[in-house]
Amino acid sequence: NGLEFCNKEFDNYLKKKGIIHQRSNIYTPEQNGLCERANRTVVEKARCLLYDAKLDKRFWAEAANTAVYLKNRSFATGLQTTPYELWYGKKPDLSHIRLFGSKVMVHIPKERRLKWDKKAMEHLLVGYSEEVKGYRLYNPAKKTLVISRDVIVMENESEIKEKGNESAIWIPNEEALADNIEKESTASVGDKLPHVLVTEDCPSDCSSMYEESNETLTGLSSPTTDKLDTEVLTTSTPEETPELPEKRSRKAPERTVSATEEI
């Protein structure tokens, strides 16, 4: 009882063809089960296309048109073939089928651009044209529909972006982060450099070397580091430091007298 079937134009067409128009009772879709089930199939497929492409509901007409386009080229169990092959007598060509809602770069003809203008514009693939051999494309910037065949379809771009974002997002653990900050605060440049310890075999200028290195690290180390350095020094050095031997002086060589020299 739809208005698209109940009008004078449609009634005149049926009379010319000799067809009797038999309608169902109102509010009784059970009397037209075959059409109702076909409509449900189209609606379910169109809903899946919209949600998979993450498009707004206002694209329902394009999604329904694409659903019918794909259904006519899909294998039907009752027919044991595709509706397209049954009607045209040949198998459909599916090489042009692309993912619904994919991003598309549409080529701009040179007649519609200047020398330094961009040669392509981003669109969304929303269907296939039955009248022209091309894709139905939606321009988000201008909010218009165009039909073109000179396109580059980027089907996997959305998946790549989602994976890249997931790998780029990092949520640190607060407890582990606090522990790392404490460890970094206790560590300093002085801990990474070798300490000079006074031992029994150390030369006489060993203590001066330690004093110079300690003075150099005083401005770089923190109070916590100075405390650690003191503990290392006290644990490494003996309780009583022995006296260092005096620096040996080199003796002058004895003068020898040659045989020709007169005494």
Structure description:
This protein is of the alpha+beta class and 263 residues long. The chain has 9 helices and 5 strands, in the order H-H-H-H-E-E-E-E-E-H-H-H-H-H. The chain folds into 3 domains: 94 residues, Ribonuclease H-like superfamily/Ribonuclease H (Nucleotidyltransferase, domain 5, 2-Layer Sandwich), CATH 3.30.420; 76 residues, SH3 type barrels (Roll); 50 residues, no CATH class. Helices cover 40% and strands 11% of the residues. Strand 2 and strand 3 form a beta hairpin. Helix 2 crosses helix 3.
Question: Quick gist of this model?
Answer:
The protein has 263 residues and is an alpha+beta fold.
Question: In terms of topology, how is this protein built?
Answer:
Layout lengths: L7 H10 L15 H21 L6 H12 L11 H6 L14 E5 L12 E9 L6 E5 L4 E5 L2 E4 L2 H12 L5 H13 L2 H4 L13 H13 L4 H14 L27
Antiparallel strand pairs: 1-2, 1-5, 2-3, 3-4
Helix pairs in contact: 2-3
CATH superfamily of the largest domain: Ribonuclease H-like superfamily/Ribonuclease H
Total strands: the figure is 5
DSSP summary: helix tally? 9
Class of the largest domain in CATH? Alpha Beta
Shape: elongated
Q: What class, by secondary structure content?
A: alpha+beta
Strand share of the residues?
A: 5-15%
Number of domains: 3
Order of helices and strands: HHHHEEEEEHHHHH
Low-confidence segments, given as residue ranges, are 159-173, 188-199
Q: Helical proportion? A: 25-40%
Architecture of the largest domain in CATH? 2-Layer Sandwich
Predict the CATH topology of the largest domain: Nucleotidyltransferase, domain 5
Distance between the termini: 150 Å
Strand order within the widest beta sheet: 4-3-2-1-5
Query: What is the mean pLDDT?
Result: 76
Radius of gyration (Å) = 45 Å
Question: Largest sheet, described in full?
Answer: 5 strands, antiparallel
